[in-house]
Amino acid sequence: MQNTGAMARDSAHREIALLRARAQGLFPADAAAPGPVVGALLALQAQDLAAATWAVGARSPGTTLAGVRAAIDAGEIVRSWPMRGTLHFVPGEDLGWMQRLTTARLLQQARLTHERQGLTEPVYEQARQVAVAALSGGRSLGRDAFQALLEQNGIDTAANRGYHLIWHLAQTGTLCWGPTAGNAQELVLLDEWVPHPRRLEHEEALGEFLLRYIRGHGPATLADFVWWSKLTVAEAKRGLQVARPQLAERRIGDASYWVAAELDGVAPDAAQRRRFASSAWLLPAFDEYFLGYRDREASAAPEHHERIVPGRNGVFQPIAVAGGRVVGTWRRRMLGTAAAGQRLGIDVVPFEAVSAAQAAGLRRAGERYARFRELRLGEFNLGDFNPGELRVGDTAAQ
């Protein structure tokens, strides 16, 4: 029998999970278009392009993969390196002010690695000139073609130098990823792809960064924001001072969290709690619902974190969520041939016991994912819960 403290903790976790799901556009799903979905969250981790498109689709009911790609091709959603040295989807108009807050520290952190590879300011400048000459006028190039062009101009791209050059040119505002091409994207000039960026003063930008994070992820703590943004604690505190009039402090359980001021005093009613308890989602690798916080216990039991991020190697698995809790991982398989009509197979590997109602909800979530891919769900397999088994999903599944 649970003790009173454990029951109170579980109740607080359910409350936090519900409110975060609501902030993230997962519950209730409000049919927002892809661009507004990304705008509401400010940034979604996107080094895995296929997974990131489903992160958007999961929050945009009725949207297909083609719809998300169309938003990318239109420049509504831009993929670049705004923070943490990691690719994210962001609204194009917000990328510039975010990078002005984060780039100096990221360049300093990368300096020794780049110097060891012979990447110096003259090399960066030569690469920048090659990029501008090749891409001006709305042109685009895939990664391999761009690296071949650098080689033709005497710039060595071997041993991962090509990646580091692209990263540097994007981090410093010359390049970003633009239109889709097959399963990838092509490089474009940022100032042409995003001709009308928002321009914020330093302190205004700090406040905007914090406010947008809380609105799209709250309830959250300042420590959550510092982890997510990788700003300094001092910068985060200054951002909080700027954004404070638009925020409210909310006590949940034995801790305090920040929420958007418009949610102050707004509590889920009994009907919402029942619907949330029966909700189920199949979310992609690196999804913000689990990844977007320093403290993740509201969405997953600590003993399961190793299965979601095996070896704590930074590779987050696709997650199966029931009633707001991560209950397993999942992967997809393609069935049949293109000629005969491909179908989708989904395998869920639970690490908690799953009820019949939750299993039915996860199958419906699989059907939603199949519709996003404009495929038919051919198989849905929910494995038996085995506490001694350590199996994880396929990070490329989405």
From TrEMBL:
Pfam families: AlkZ-like (PF06224). One of its GO terms (molecular function) is DNA binding. The keyword DNA-binding applies. Keywords: DNA-binding. It comes from the Bacteria. This is Winged helix DNA-binding domain-containing protein. It comes from Microterricola viridarii.
